[in-house]
Design goal:
Rossmann fold, 9 helices, elongated, alpha/beta, 5-stranded antiparallel sheet, 33% helix
Length: 313
């Protein structure tokens, strides 16, 4: 993703704010939403005094006014609350969805930098960004503590997708996931697949043999998709993945192929609960014959599994 203005994850927003050498930037938190909204509560934008923006809180409905509000907040050095939509009193700006969004604009100050830096450093660990009424920030890794009158926003790492397989279907899935701002890695026994993934700028890892156990570094925010037509590669890999905390495990193949896969995994010692974790046939839409649509179907299934477990970044 080359256009930084399209980035929206809290880690990217915080890193962008910290990189501003002049410090002339304000953080924008969504604190509450009613009705339809494109963003959940949390750190959603950084706005520079010169008007530069990363992130968004709507689909363009309020951003122009919000930039002006943030510039005034920076000039005054004041934490500023602003609302748009239903019962906000802002008759000049209407949210077509009929909802409401409440925001807090916090001019970046030296006291904020440690919390933002700590959050950015925890790239693969969930935590909470805590906003006090006075605009103070703190980072709490792990489980949430008592709010105590403060706003507590959960922050999860970006989805990491490990694509294990060979050929065009694996490559198209990896490319689409990268475009969706997931952290993607391709693992393959095929040199051409690895070369083509590398040319796309995607990290790669060779799979050296049927009994190989690659270092996949799976954490709870990792999804794994096996994209093999030659299913003999899968048994050892799936046994390892099913013993991991991956929130999603999917495997390419027909219903009949999946039945044979289950038999092989059961013979390898995998229990019923582990086997039921496998999404197969892979993807939300079954029997797709187009590899691009198959990739979109898998991404949708990964997103649904993430939303069910973690709700929001």
């Amino acid at each position: 993703m080359n256009d930084d203005s399209l980035l929206s994850h809290p880690h990217d927003i915080a890193a962008h704010a910290l990189a501003r050498e002049d410090g002339e930037v304000a953080l924008v938190f969504v604190t509450a939403v009613e009705g339809g909204s494109v963003r959940a509560p949390g750190l959603r934008m950084a706005i520079a005094r010169d008007g530069g923006v990363i992130g968004f809180v709507s689909n363009g409905c309020v951003e122009a006014d919000l930039i002006a509000t943030a510039q005034r907040a920076m000039a005054d050095g004041a934490v500023t609350a602003v609302s748009y939509g239903r019962d906000s009193g802002r008759i000049d700006i209407v949210l077509p969805c009929g909802g409401r969004v409440d925001l807090t604009v916090v001019p970046l100050a030296p006291r904020h930098r440690a919390a933002l830096a700590a959050m950015v450093a925890d790239t693969r660990r969930s935590g909470q960004l805590v906003l006090s009424a006075s605009g103070g920030l703190a980072w709490q890794p792990g489980a949430a503590g008592p709010a105590g009158g403060r706003q507590v926003f959960p922050v999860h790492p970006k989805i990491r997708l490990v694509v294990i397989g060979v050929g065009t279907e694996a490559l198209l899935l990896a490319r689409l996931a990268s475009g969706a701002d997931m952290q993607v890695e391709v693992v393959s026994p095929d040199e051409i697949t690895l070369e083509r993934a590398g040319a796309l700028g995607i990290p790669v890892q060779p799979l050296l043999g049927l009994s190989s156990s690659p270092a996949l570094r799976i954490d709870p925010l990792t999804a794994v998709a096996l994209m093999f037509h030659d299913h003999e590669w899968e048994t050892r890999l799936l046994a390892d993945v099913l013993a991991s905390p991956a929130f999603y495990v999917g495997a390419l193949g027909s219903t009949r192929a999946h039945g044979r896969r289950i038999e092989a995994l059961r013979a390898a010692g995998c229990g019923r609960d582990a086997l039921e974790r496998i999404r197969a046939p892979i993807g939300m839409v079954h029997r797709l014959r187009d590899p691009n649509l198959l990739a979109a179907s898998v991404i949708a299934e990964v997103a649904a599994a993430f939303q069910e477990r973690f709700e929001a970044f």
